[in-house]
Design brief:
single chain; 6-stranded mixed β-sheet; 7-stranded mixed β-sheet; 542 residues
Length: 542
């Protein structure tokens, strides 16, 4: 089996995402800090980081929970693999992941000499536990549906056995995915993983150890002196801090109190002003495997919006370019489908589109038997998850846009905790404004919003709409096992077309995510998902 190699864009499109393509790299241009990386990293200092949202509900949430707990947990907990800024798979806790000839078995060789933060040895039994009791039932969804068994061959070798062929790119993407973090078996076995108190004081193998969580303010990490990457991390202390509003984050960047802020931490209108201070640098790298969108989600349990023709009509009432220009200040583009245009492997524009046309929206609603009566067709409850300022503004725009075609709107713009409960637990909305990230591999991170097995009450950022469609489930099932690259690509295109026809959930804008950082900070975009990076190789210059 060959090692990961750098491939051209054309290579990625024509070679196997199953076995021939272990990883891919593309020409994205060099980051602003690349020249500084030629010098030796400096040691010491304290780094304060933040993001464009608020405090998490727990420092680690098994199976998801959104961006807030994702960023706090990935500094402590590690994965078997990661994807770097050139979109190549790189070893983390696994030194190699090798398939059998029929792609029904994978041998995982684990790194030796790794210890958990409490001093226990990391072994193959930890990975077996995670594969069978954590990843398959909780975090990976359909991605590991075919996993039949996991066995420890020896103390640092694991054999995964599947009932069906599993494409190599697919499995490695899963193991490097957002939620396949490795938990310590000795602290989780025999206990409820989801409610385990250790989720608020995680013990991992990563470069940072849990220190203290001051609720409403910050979480502090200590340097892991026994980290397996010898000599790392370079920084002495790491703090994740939350600010209640974007203006405060901007001010903290300007004063130097905040050193790194990612996932669009301030409104786009403030970027130029902060960069002009000469203290802050703008970077759009670090999101290659975590494209970002804002969505409109239609509750299939509610009258009117459960009908496909009504959802399609509503989409004609929405001016996506106006949203890009006005709410995101031009930093983004209208979304075409759940497979983003930035995905060079699976994107297709051969999908149904819904051009802004209020007259057509009205005509389609008339045809659906929902004519205007006393100036109103029907009413909806529009819930805006206002964990981002832009979401709240989008709620105000959608309210006006829908009322322009005769749909009365009750708008609720709510905080993070309320939004998570109402959307993903109570299903208390007609239309919701939310967000999701889309990696290159669509299964399950994207497909789970459209499949029946993605309906997990209380599971954040999954199929909260309740959409269930046998053709969709069968299609995603075929994508999961197809090992021929061109056939798999065709199946993903069919998924995009069906999702864009049924439209239970619709990406409205492909948001241009960005990072703002102190000009003294180096090497902060060495991974393709900056939010989930461990920051082990980041350093502070003079």
């Amino acid at each position: 089996m060959t090692q990961p190699t750098a491939l051209s864009r054309r290579d990625v499109l024509i070679r196997s995402a199953a076995g021939l393509t272990a990883a891919a790299s593309y020409s994205w241009g060099l980051p602003a800090q690349a020249q500084a990386q030629a010098t030796a990293p400096r040691r010491g200092g304290t780094l304060v980081i933040s993001w464009g949202g608020l405090e998490p509900q727990a420092l680690y949430v098994p199976g998801g929970g959104g961006s807030a707990p994702y960023q706090t947990s990935t500094k402590i907990l590690e994965r078997l693999l990661r994807i770097d800024d050139k979109l190549q798979f790189q070893p983390v806790l696994a030194e190699s992941v090798t398939p059998s000839a029929d792609f029904k078995q994978y041998t995982i060789k684990l790194r030796q000499g790794v210890k958990w933060h409490d001093g226990k040895d990391f072994t193959a039994q930890d990975v077996v536990f995670n594969a069978l009791q954590h990843w398959k039932p909780i975090s990976a969804g359909i991605a590991l549906k075919a996993l039949a068994d996991a066995k420890a061959v020896d103390s640092h070798t694991v054999l995964l056995t599947f009932n069906t062929p599993v494409p190599e790119f697919f499995l490695k993407s899963t193991l490097a995915g957002a939620y396949q973090l490795v938990l310590p078996r000795h602290l989780y076995e025999g206990k409820d993983i989801i409610t385990n108190p250790a989720n608020n004081t995680p013990v991992g193998t990563g470069p940072w150890k849990y220190g203290q969580w001051v609720r409403g303010s910050h979480v502090q990490y200590q340097r892991n002196e026994q980290y397996w990457r010898q000599g790392q991390p370079y920084i002495d202390k790491l703090i994740v801090r939350w600010w209640a509003d974007a203006a405060s984050r901007g001010a903290a960047l300007e004063t130097g109190e905040l050193g790194l802020a990612y996932s669009s931490p301030v409104p786009a209108r403030d970027i130029d002003r902060l960069v002009k201070t000469g203290k802050v640098t703008l970077e759009t790298r670090g999101y290659e495997n975590a494209a970002w969108t804002v969505t409109a989600e239609f509750n299939q349990r509610r009258e009117h919006v459960k009908r496909r023709e009504v959802r399609q009509a509503i989409l004609h009432a929405i001016n996506r370019q106006f949203i890009v220009d006005t709410i995101y200040y031009g930093r983004g583009k209208p979304a075409i489908s759940p497979i983003f245009s930035s995905n060079p492997i699976f994107f297709t524009d051969d999908v149904p589109r819904y051009a802004f046309d209020p007259k057509k929206a009205g005509a389609l609603l008339d045809a659906a038997g929902l004519p205007l009566k006393d100036g109103k067709r029907f009413s909806v409850n529009l819930l805006a998850a206002a964990w981002f300022e832009e979401n709240a503004k989008l709620g105000q725009y959608l309210k006006q846009a829908l009322e322009d075609v005769g749909i009365a709107v009750k708008l609720d713009s709510v905080d993070r905790a309320t939004a998570l409960k109402r959307i993903y637990s109570d299903y208390d909305y007609d239309i919701a404004i939310s967000n999701f990230t889309a990696p290159l591999e669509p299964v399950p991170s994207v497909t789970q919003y459209f499949t029946t097995d993605g309906i997990v009450r209380g599971g954040a950022f999954r199929n909260a709409t309740g959409f269930s469609h046998p053709e969709m489930d069968a299609l995603v099932g075929r994508i999961t096992v197809e090992t021929k690259p061109q056939e798999r690509k065709k199946l993903v295109h069919a998924f995009a077309k069906l999702a864009s026809t049924e439209v239970p959930l619709v990406p409205l804008v492909e948001i241009q995510a960005f990072t703002l950082a102190s000009k003294k900070l180096h090497n902060f975009t060495s991974v393709a998902d900056v939010q989930g990076g461990s920051l082990d190789d980041v350093w502070i210059g003079a």
